[in-house]
Amino acid sequence: MLGRLRAALPSGDDFLFSVKAFAGAMLALYIALRLDLPRPAWAMGTAYIVAHPLSGAVSSKAVYRVLGTLLGAAAAIVLVPNLANAPEVLSLAMALWIGFCLFVSLLDRTPRAYAFMLAGYTAAIIGFPSVADPAAIFDTALARSEEIILGILCAALASRLLFPRHVGPVISARVQAWLAEIDKLSVGAIEGSWTDEQRIRGRARLAGDASELHALATHLDYDPSDLQGMTRQMQALQSRMVIMLPLLGIIRDRVVALKEATGAVPPQEQALLDAVRRWMAVGPTSDPDEGTRLRAASSATLPALDAAADWTTLLRASLFARLRDFIDLRTDCCRLWTAIVAGDRRLPEGLHRTGEPMTESPLHLDLGIAALSAVAAMAGVLVCCLMWISTSWADGATAAQMVAVGMSLMATQDNPVPALTRFIYGALAAMAIVFVYQFLIFPSVDGFPALVAVLAPVFVLAGAYMIRPSTAPIALAITVNTAVLLGIQDRYSADVATFFNANIAAIGGFVIAVIVLSLMRTIGAEQAGRRLLAAAWRDVADAAGRPNARPRVFARRMIDRLGLLMPRLALAPSLARGSERAMVGVAVGVSTIELRAAVGTLPAPARDDVERLVAELQDYFSRRAGDPTGEAPAPPVADIDTALRDLLRLPEGLARRNAVFALVALRRGLHPSAEPYRAAVPTAPLSAPRPVEVPA
Prior knowledge:
The protein contains 25 helices and no strands. It is mostly helical. It folds into 3 domains: 12-165 and 363-520, no CATH class; 167-222 and 231-341, Up-down Bundle (Four Helix Bundle (Hemerythrin (Met), subunit A)); 525-670, no CATH class. Helix 4 (55-83) packs antiparallel against helix 7, helix 9 packs across helix 21 (551-569) and helix 13 (311-341) crosses helix 25 (654-670). The longest helix has 32 residues, at 231-262. Its main location: membrane. It is found in: Cell membrane. GO terms for molecular function: transmembrane transporter activity. Keywords: Cell membrane, Membrane, Transmembrane, Transmembrane helix, Transport.
């Protein structure tokens, strides 16, 4: 009991964050009062909206929030005066603008998203209260922009000056932990001692950590730490880190398959595996030059592949080819991380190519959810505006603002209804707090120091719960709504009727948002996970049909989806099997892309068999996309073996070798329990392929 109570209390770090947020809010309030801005409370409330434990995150978001505020103000200035005489049309125009901005923000997983989100609901904050006096829209827009921007800047200033917690050290700790964990799993993979739990949970956890690292790294350019300006180096590091995950699974699979087929790996090859294992066991500080020597040894161990090659030979060749690739990536990671820690802003020399330039975004985007969220926000705003117009609701503008704000802030969640419901509870608590302040405490307050003293207990305590995921919605609602609804001015004035009308309208707006979201925009963790898995398999099917698909870009996007899936596994354990299949799908998809790319280099008999197999694979992946957690019959193993025999009869070449490795991966990924491949009866080799080579 005592332990649970202790865990429920805020920690020292929680209180430190809260004190910094309160200091930023008080600074914004003080400056707004000194500048005689119309609504200083908006500056105070904005400071709490943008507060974040990491100073770099506050700074990066602050830049785009300022841009979004100015864009939203400009939209209000354009729309309100021109459409004020047609309230229904103005409501539609505002709803379209809010929906469009929300849609764009959900398709951008960088701090830029805040610019579009702010542009949407800032237009509502400025525009809806101005319909009664459209001629004053410019003055209103200027005042709200000044108040909001002041709150943003003060929050950023407090975060950077008062015991700043930089993004750089957090990223450093995460990267070192990630590299140490991948090395630990690598040792288990090479030994073949991975358990099913390690295979499924371990790689899924690392995929989730990689997604979190990407989100943190987007703030580096705004973070005054040792890693400031290291975004390019971090991108190079991350692009290699995520590709290590599917390779690790392939290596483990080949080691296990070899031991099953022969009882043990040959002594000379086992000695090489042991040397690689010892090198990895050192951790992220292991010698890159030793990695170069191990790579050369792996290349020298690759057996010749001809028509007489049996299944064991193919497994050995696949193992040491992928081990070589893994050593390349790990060596690059060691060199990159050493350079980053040393503050070297140049990319180290000797990095291996990752396959293609980073010109295509590797991140998962869900157009369907983004569009649905935008339509739901538009519907919520329109419903509220129609109620406002039809009933001549005096405080309808306040409700419309809250609909726009609530539906925008919660749009990134799978099911925003529970969080927004908790937000309403927080708003009700804020209403009670504001009543006590306005009618019992403020009449006795004289001067700004006394005001700070009476506000501190509530705001510091509530703010300490803002960074806990379980309490953040309620705590954010209490701090922001209390700040805004207090309506602090340079002199005391309070009216009971105004107080209740404004607060009921604000809570009514949130209730409308909850009702609309409940009807239009609620998906559970399992459904969200199924959408991610379906998108992954659609991506595989699409890649199988495109001769110019980029395997590394494809793999990074797949790993990103698995990273997004990770937090949903705890809420929907039924997704665990689907996530493991999707991880296998990364290797299968990359193999299909490599096989598809080799088609144009093959002579007629082999080309026909490979094209037929690729078409079967594309159909299989499409069926998996339709039911991502179900079963679907894979292309027959005999078709894969036929293509293998055709390719092994061809003369040696890089494209042919890559295609053979792709077929081995497909055979193991789709038919892990199949009988071993049987070599063809020796015949005359087929004609040589055209001299077109695919990068390894």
